[in-house]
């Protein structure tokens, strides 16, 4: 499924591996729980590693390991839960994370502009038909009153 990365539509070269699924080669993301319990095995496999943070996960819990991650996925369990906005801002502003931060899960295309402002630079959408709408929404506003993370 295509994603939006750096405001361009591109191929997704990553896959999420659930806690109960076997590890695979290639670029994968795992949950915080799996990272904490299988860190050494994850670092020894071939391919890049990323982490998927749920809204309840603490960014501070991975702050010492940020250099290990090429990608951090912020999982939106429901579009009305704004904690992932705060996680993105903390990753960029407090912890200086320079890698890719990707929004995944249940968020609205109308939120992508605001997600970009707090540091999200990639978007995986549940509905591939909405990708062009989301890409256009990244430029919804030309005047901004507050500073952003990017």
TrEMBL record:
This is Oxidoreductase. The lineage of its organism: Bacteria, Pseudomonadati, Pseudomonadota, Gammaproteobacteria, Methylococcales. It comes from the Bacteria. Pfam families: DUF934.
């Amino acid at each position: 499924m295509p994603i939006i990365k750096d405001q361009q539509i591109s191929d997704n070269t990553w896959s999420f591996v659930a806690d109960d699924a076997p590890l695979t080669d290639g670029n994968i993301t795992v949950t915080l729980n799996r990272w904490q319990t299988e860190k050494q095995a994850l670092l020894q496999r071939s391919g890049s590693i990323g982490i998927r943070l749920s809204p309840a996960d603490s960014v501070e819990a991975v702050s010492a390991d940020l250099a290990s991650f090429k990608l951090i996925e912020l999982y939106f369990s429901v579009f009305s839960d704004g904690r992932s906005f705060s996680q993105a801002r903390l990753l960029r502003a407090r912890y200086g994370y320079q890698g890719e931060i990707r929004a995944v899960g249940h968020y609205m295309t109308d939120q992508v502009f605001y997600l970009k402002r707090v540091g999200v630079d990639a978007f995986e959408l549940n509905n591939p038909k909405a990708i062009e709408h989301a890409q256009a929404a990244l430029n919804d506003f030309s005047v901004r009153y507050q500073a952003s993370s990017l």
